[in-house]
Amino acid sequence: MKEGIYEILGKRITGVIVKRAEESEPRSQLFLLFDDNTYYEMYSNSAIIGTRGCVSGDRKNVINYLQSSERIIELDCFLDETGQIVKK
Questions:
Q1: CA neighbours within 13 Å on the CB side: how many for 22?
Q2: What gap in Å lies between CA 33 and CA 29, rounded to an integer?
Q3: Each residue's pLDDT tens digit, 20-66
Q4: Which pTM was predicted?
Q5: Where do the structural domains in the chain lie, given as residue ranges?
Q6: What distance in Å separates the CA atoms of residue 37 and residue 12, rounded to the nearest whole number?
Q7: What is the 3-state secondary structure (H, E, C) of the chain?
């Protein structure tokens, strides 16, 4: 995972744009738009698929959910109570 992803912590998402292409790369792109007039792009050469909606839970719930499968957690970071980035 590239270091730039840490820059999205603490930002407020104001929009989401998803692009899917059949014949060009990257096949899928996801753009998160923020209220400070910046955006962050994630992309893949396979499909990015969203879930049906938000799920109640916090970081601990997500980690427990991932450990119930054989997925590798590539990135785990969050802002602590002082606003500092914590990388796990």
A1: 0
A2: 13
A3: 888 888 889 999 999 999 999 999 998 888 888 888 998 888 888 88
A4: 0.76
A5: 3-87
A6: 10
A7: CCHHHHHHCCCCEEEEEEEECCCCCCCEEEEEEECCCCEEEEEECCCCCCCCCCCCCCHHHHHHHHHCCCCCCCCCEEECCCCCEEEC
Confidence of residue 71 (pLDDT cuts 50, 70, 90): low
CB distance 84 to 65 below 8 Å: no
Q: Which two tokens stand for residue 79?
A: 């802002």
Q: How many CA atoms lie within 13 A of 57 on its CB side?
A: 11
Rounded to 5 degrees, φ, ψ at 30 are -125, 125
Residue 72 has pLDDT above 90, yes or no: no
- Tell me how far CA of residue 74 lies from CA of 10, 56, 63, 87, 88, in angstroms: 20, 22, 12, 11, 10
The residue assigned the tokens 């450990």 is: 67
